[in-house]
Structure formats: C-alpha cells, structure tokens
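Morning!

This is the sequence you dropped in the shared folder:
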Amino acid sequence: MNQEKIGAFIARRRKEKKLTQAKLASYLGITDRAVSKWERGKGLPDPVYMLELCRLLDISVNELLTGEFIEETKYQQKAEDNLLIMAKQEVKQTKKMFFYENVIGIGSTIIFAILIFMSVYFVENGGIKILLFIFAFLFLITGVSIALKIETEEGYYECQKCHHKYIPSYRQVYFAMHIGRTRYMKCPHCQKRSWQKKIYSK
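The structure's back. Tokens below.
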C-alpha cells in the first residue's frame, strides 16, 4: 500500500469536507498528531478508526486503502488487490514479531545462564548469591512470559484434525506441551487434541 498516496487522499478529502486536523481527530477520539502522521504518509489509520474515518470523509474502506476514488467497474478488483496486500502485510508483521519473540526468549535464557554461572563461580557472599539466583529466575520468567504472549497473539494455530485456524488463550499456550511453535492443544472447533502448528495468517 502506498502510504503517501493514502495520506494525500485523506488530507484532500478532509479539506473538501472543511475539517481541520484537530476537528477530524476530535471526532475520532485521537490526537491531531495522529491525523498529521497519516496525512504525511508516516503510518496508516488503525483498523479501529477506519470505518468512522471513512464515514466522516464519505469514502469506502476500499477507496481509503487504495488512496483514490474507484470506478464501480474496477471496485471488485481493487478490493481483491487490497485484501492480498493486507494479507502480505499481516504475514510480514507476524514474522517481525516472531523475530522479537526469539530475541527475547533466547536473550533472557542467556542472561539467566550468565547470572547463575556468576553466582556459582564468582560470588562468595551468600546473600548476594541468593539475590542473583532470584534475579536470574525473575528475568527468565519475565522474558519467557513476554515471548509466549507474542506467540499467542501473533498469527494463528491450525488444528491438524479439522484445519480450523484460531488464536488460543495465553493459558492454553503456556501449559501446552510443545516442540518449537507446535503445541499439543484442544481445538475449539472440533474439540479434538492434536499437535497444532503456528501459521502466519488465515
């Protein structure tokens, strides 16, 4: 998606509707800095605001994402193109978050190991030893928890029995047996347990 084109389109429609950035922002319940960011092509409106933004600007979501008015004969094709672009962006974002998950998970494990090693071989004071042990375990638990939260919320799990794709609860992910990002869980659709693989998008 061409963010600059979309931004210019938002700005043009806002002016045609005789709205200031501050006024448009107040209708959406956001800051005028967010509107300015969209119009400068530095970001896209959050999906939460898209429908109301389109209503205020008197355009369709499809036109918003295209950055121009669409002829009726080309509307279907543009809608399909936008869906493909959004799907690709979802996959890209999920891959990026999985990279962060790996960095946090591996990083916290390495720091845990270093702190334990230091406390065993380099620290003689009993009180400091205990503090290092506590800090090491807290660091590991926090890191793993954040990594698991990312894994839970990004992408989908696919049931190997009925191929239903869903986002499980954090509790399900936390307590499930796993091999990498493949977890043994119950599908909410068919109610059967299987080794369910993590996938990037529906």
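Headline: The chain is about 65% helix and 10% strand.

More detail when I'm at my desk.
O.
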